[in-house]
Automatic annotation (TrEMBL):
The species this protein was found in: Marasmiellus scandens
Residues covered by region (Disordered): 121-149
GO MF term set: ligase activity
Lineage of the organism: Eukaryota, Fungi, Dikarya, Basidiomycota, Agaricomycotina
InterPro entries: CoaB-like_sf, DNA/pantothenate-metab_flavo_C
Gene designation per UniProt: CAB2
Protein name: Phosphopantothenate--cysteine ligase cab2
Amino acid sequence: MSSEPISFSAESYFATQLPPPTLEHDIAGVRSFISRQQASGRNVVLVTSGGTTVPLELNVVRFLDNFSAGTRGATSAEYFLKSGYAVIFMHRQFSLQPFSRHYSHSTNPFLDFLEIDGISSTSSPPSESPPSESPPSESPPSSDPQITVTPSKRTHLLQVLTAYKQVHASETLHTLTFVTVNDYLWLLRAVSQELSVLNRKAMYYLAAAVSDFFLPRQKMSEHKIQSGKGSLHIEMDQVPKILKPMVDEWTRNGYIVSFKLETDPALLIPKARTSLERYGHQVVIGNDLNRRKFEVVFVERKTKTKNASGQDEFEENWLKIDLSKDKEKEIEEDIVRELVKRHEDWVRGGVLN
Ligand code: PMT
């Protein structure tokens, strides 16, 4: 499967790779969502979330994946909504979503929160049930069984459900899905271009884990790769760096936040600075894979100072939470609070970069 690597610019990428079939339909929905938010004067944030796949075959059986459960994106989206933003939530299909994330099948299976009156050993039997000598856990459900929420889970569920219903009623959350890195790139470009009508009132919060390498469709096997020929060698091409055209062409004065994921802590700040220098956006949030739930670093350009050679200077601010003191605390609450402050300055035009 090895052939000469192709060097893709963003332009040549979009000229040679096909858009996802649902793109036009998706973007029509985004357009009407944005125009409703524009009429109401809200700020809008695009949150990207989850990992992108790289298929190895056109009729895809095998693919590579990027690590991300979607926790960062889904949690942040909730805090943006709470802060009055409208949110376009562009996420990997089946990754975590705002509100429902609290009851993910792995951490909090929702069936464990429910009881059928007359069956659970923790619920009291319904008053109309006939007296029974067997314990409640063994009694059969009545012909019209009632489902209730386990008492100890009610307060939290009520909070989540209330926020969810409010967002639903105010129509401030719009959801889009991607699977492959190709879906992601096409959607990101199209949504960014639509959102650019909001100018400074738009924020772009790029928390998705984007593959750096891919297999162009021209090099993909049509059918399932056969295993009879021994080991498999695949040479992948580099995904074009999309932050550059995003800053320079697709968005207009929007406030752009990217994430930098590293596993070597020593690389985090230098790589975040390089990203800011190279792409010219507003903030890079650095996170170490193993510490990302309790510490992140904001890397930004100092707005008023340059060094002796006239180059930008950078500053770093760490956000840390102490999970031993507060197990429920979510670092995304602090990330979003900090970003909302910075974005307010940005909207007022008070930040010079
Ligand atoms: O979902 P969780 O499990 O909670 O995990 C959250 C997270 C760790 C995935 C998230 O916080 C995070 O760090 N996301 C960014 C991961 C990533 O793609 O890092 P990177 O260093 O490969 O890319 C850095 C930036 O470059 C990203 O903002 C990306 O949008 C951008 N990029 C990436 C690829 C590409 N071809 N062009 C780009 O411009």
